[in-house]
Write a structure and sequence with these properties.
Number of domains: 3
Oligomer: single chain
Strand content: 5-15%
Order of helices and strands: HEEHHEEHEEEEEHHHHH
Shape: globular
Radius of gyration: 21 Å
Strand order of the largest sheet: 5-6-4-8-7
Distance between the termini: 45 Å
Length: 275
């Protein structure tokens, strides 16, 4: 048994969802179906898409407390190559404020209430009791790792863990950014059009916009699934236009998705449908 595997099993026994990391602090691609982000996940498999493959999968979704999963054949080679162990903070109701350098640590000491700290290679992890949405780059050298994210396990740390303060929660509250126009590849069609009236397509686009706008969590996955549904229904007959795609992208951007993530989700949906 490798040291990393032993650490993961110890964490799992304590109720901490654990997973292996390869070099570069990146998860292993355990699921062939999701290779190259075919499931709609974001770059480097750090965020999974709406895949339906069996666990263990990839990114934070692979973290588990089940020892049978941790020691299963799908992970046997991963543990032999693992460079570190990660855990899912949000899965146990915690938030990690990842301070990446000395200036960020100094800011935290001036601004945030003291809590349990763990030393990292370049800075510190400040761990609070309470979960919240994750976000990177909330200020220079500061990332928030909680729900739908993972953090390296670097030991239990020192100090008493305190409740998640409003000052940390406020770091991820973002003002709506202006919607930027994007250029996307719209299928040129060629198939038989089964839409009897333009109203059918208009209703479909309006419903898709509403679905994205109404999302309260899992926005990236919702955007991907919506793009997939629209392209499946309207992408092969030539009815879908750039203006329709722009409406969907605008709806996604108002929910916080970047133009790049919109483009990736659109491209992944087209790939999944063989377009």
């Amino acid at each position: 048994m490798t040291a990393h595997l032993n650490t993961a099993l110890t964490l799992a026994a304590r109720g901490v969802p654990a997973m292996p990391l390869r070099a570069g602090k990146v998860p292993f691609g355990n699921c062939p179906t999701c290779r190259d982000n075919a499931c709609g996940g974001r770059s480097n498999m750090k965020t999974p898409g709406p895949c339906t493959c069996p666990r263990p999968c990839h990114a934070w979704a692979a973290a588990t407390t089940n020892p049978d999963v941790i020691t299963c054949p799908a992970w046997s080679s991963c543990w032999k190559q693992a460079a570190a162990v990660a855990y899912h903070p949000g899965g146990i109701g915690l938030t990690v404020v990842d301070l990446d350098h000395a200036d960020a640590v100094a800011w935290a000491r001036r601004t945030l209430p003291a809590t349990r700290t763990v030393s990292t290679t370049r800075g510190e992890h400040w761990i609070y009791r309470g979960a919240m949405p994750s976000a990177n780059g909330v200020r220079p050298g500061v990332d928030i790792k909680s729900t739908m994210s993972y953090a390296r396990w670097l030991g239990p740390g020192s100090g008493t863990m305190t409740a998640l303060p409003d000052a940390v929660r406020a770091l991820v509250v973002r003002k709506p950014s202006p919607v930027r126009p994007v250029t996307v590849a719209v299928p040129s069609g060629g198939g038989e059009c089964r839409h009897r009236t333009p109203a059918y397509l208009e209703r479909g686009i309006a419903m898709a916009e509403q679905r994205i706008t109404a999302a309260t969590s899992g926005v990236h996955a919702t955007v991907y699934r919506t793009f997939l549904a629209v392209l499946s229904a309207h992408g092969r007959c030539g009815c879908l236009t750039d203006s329709h795609a722009a409406r969907l992208f605008a709806a996604a951007q108002t929910k916080g998705e970047s133009p790049r993530h919109c483009t990736d989700a659109w491209s992944n949906a087209r790939t999944a449908l063989g377009m």
